[in-house]
């Protein structure tokens, strides 16, 4: 199977074998032209000869249409996932027309009907979603640390920080430190506050910046790579052989 994640910044793909093991994967910046990027990848995908392509896209109808046109040339069945607020494995109180399918799939990848869970996605946006025994209660969306830094850079005269590392939440005594530490604290502080408000929810973190953030959380955090991939696989697996759960 071939799995595609068309995110805000990057296109990711995974090829899995019959038992769900990843045999190839990559992530590429798509710079607003994912259909063109995909076009350049079709040779590679053809060589893999997957029997199905499952897709998560948060790029909107116009781009999805162009992606579908590109994939049609491959002669391999493909399907975009749509949020299902009444899914047997995960229901949701969120407006299903608005909920990003990447958030939903990350939750689907993590959901455990016996638990209370807080799924934190650390990609282009940071998302925090609460799930109570397989019911999505709602969540929060933040700009990630780099977007926050860009916002400060472009909205102020005296802050011209465009590089540096996010490695501490102690108070800074230079602009550079104050900016990086303030931004990191905004996310770390939010997660700690979520934990204070929902102490029985297990913290689960995924995405490229998960480890940068997790180090500063005062509670145990389960770092989960590829939650979205897990959600994609679960979604199509469940559809093939629906189980009564
Ligand atoms: N090779 C890499 N390229 C880009 N970002 C990376 C890389 N490795 C780690 N990161 C970190 O991952 C973060 C992005 O996380 P993630 O990969 O989950 O999302 P994304 O693919 O960039 O965003 P989206 O899924 O919304 O397109 C970046 O802010 C960056 O700090
Ligand atoms: C929040 C992001 C940007 C996270 O990638 C994505 O899931 C998205 O565009 N969502 C739409 C808005 C929403 O989820 O309510
Ligand atoms: K937008």
Automatic annotation (TrEMBL):
<comment type="function">
    <text>Catalyzes the phosphorylation of pantothenate (Pan), the first step in CoA biosynthesis.</text>
</comment>
<keyword id="KW-0547">Nucleotide-binding</keyword>
<keyword id="KW-0963">Cytoplasm</keyword>
<protein>
    <recommendedName>
        <fullName>Type III pantothenate kinase</fullName>
        <ecNumber>2.7.1.33</ecNumber>
    </recommendedName>
</protein>
<keyword id="KW-0067">ATP-binding</keyword>
<comment type="pathway">
    <text>Cofactor biosynthesis; coenzyme A biosynthesis; CoA from (R)-pantothenate: step 1/5.</text>
</comment>
<keyword id="KW-0418">Kinase</keyword>
<dbReference type="GO" id="GO:0016301">
    <property type="term" value="F:kinase activity"/>
</dbReference>
<feature type="binding site">
    <location>
        <position position="124"/>
    </location>
    <ligand>
        <name>ATP</name>
    </ligand>
</feature>
<keyword id="KW-0173">Coenzyme A biosynthesis</keyword>
<feature type="binding site">
    <location>
        <begin position="100"/>
        <end position="103"/>
    </location>
    <ligand>
        <name>substrate</name>
    </ligand>
</feature>
<dbReference type="InterPro" id="IPR043129">
    <property type="entry name" value="ATPase_NBD"/>
</dbReference>
<comment type="subunit">
    <text>Homodimer.</text>
</comment>
<feature type="binding site">
    <location>
        <position position="175"/>
    </location>
    <ligand>
        <name>substrate</name>
    </ligand>
</feature>
<dbReference type="InterPro" id="IPR004619">
    <property type="entry name" value="Type_III_PanK"/>
</dbReference>
<dbReference type="Pfam" id="PF03309">
    <property type="entry name" value="Pan_kinase"/>
</dbReference>
<feature type="binding site">
    <location>
        <position position="94"/>
    </location>
    <ligand>
        <name>substrate</name>
    </ligand>
</feature>
<keyword id="KW-0630">Potassium</keyword>
<comment type="similarity">
    <text>Belongs to the type III pantothenate kinase family.</text>
</comment>
<feature type="active site" description="Proton acceptor">
    <location>
        <position position="102"/>
    </location>
</feature>
<feature type="binding site">
    <location>
        <begin position="5"/>
        <end position="12"/>
    </location>
    <ligand>
        <name>ATP</name>
    </ligand>
</feature>
<keyword id="KW-0808">Transferase</keyword>
